[in-house]
Design a protein that fits this description.
about 190 residues, 11 helices, about 0% strand, globular
């Protein structure tokens, strides 16, 4: 799961969303200085990633890409799945995606002091280029993949994976739709135990 899914799966708690959003930059158990709700978001993020990486449907999606993108396949599928969440947003929320993303951007501004340094550097681009809303289109996904490709030390060629997205679009969408129902249930259960 990529940014949009992680935020969505955090429920309505803004600080849990922040924790879930910054979690990739937090290593080990070195997060007890954060407020408890942010800590819960970090823990939730890790639970989502563990569930996702081991799930047979997610693995089926990654296998379709593995020959060309190797260990980047999971990252690519995370982004593809965010596309299907954004594209079909009305199936998951009564709030328009434009409003939802703007509320999250405002929460990032309001809680900027809690963000990691790396996240603080990324946030102005995230907001200015409206990454979360751009996930709705294939062109937006392609733009994200190009940017990620440019940041990689080794040439990942992720930018070219949009060809597979177009070719296997309905397969990826069907897999996402089935998988997302399961990850929603898993996330809700995890939140109840935090």
């Amino acid at each position: 799961m990529n940014f949009l899914a992680h935020i969505y799966l955090s429920g309505d708690n803004d600080l849990m969303k922040i924790g879930n959003f910054i979690a990739d930059g937090i290593h080990g158990k070195n997060f007890d200085a954060f407020p408890m709700e942010i800590q819960k978001g970090i823990i939730l993020h890790r639970a989502i990633d563990t569930f996702t990486d081991a799930h047979p449907i997610f693995r089926q999606s990654t296998k379709r890409l593995h020959a060309n993108y190797h260990h980047y396949s999971g990252i690519i599928v995370d982004i593809f799945y965010d596309h299907f969440l954004a594209k079909n947003w009305e199936n998951y929320s009564d709030e328009p995606l434009e409003n939802y993303t703007e509320r999250f951007y405002q929460s990032l501004r309001d809680n900027y002091h809690f963000l990691t340094e790396k996240t603080q550097k990324m946030v102005p681009y995230l907001i200015a280029q409206n990454w979360l809303l751009s996930y709705q289109t294939i062109e937006g996904i392609e733009n994200v993949l190009v940017k990620m490709d440019n940041r990689m030390k080794r040439n990942s060629n992720m930018r070219f994976s949009v060809a597979e997205l177009r070719t296997f679009y309905s397969d990826f969408e069907t897999e996402f739709t089935t998988f997302f129902e399961e990850i929603k249930t898993h996330s809700k259960q995890k939140i109840e135990t935090l």
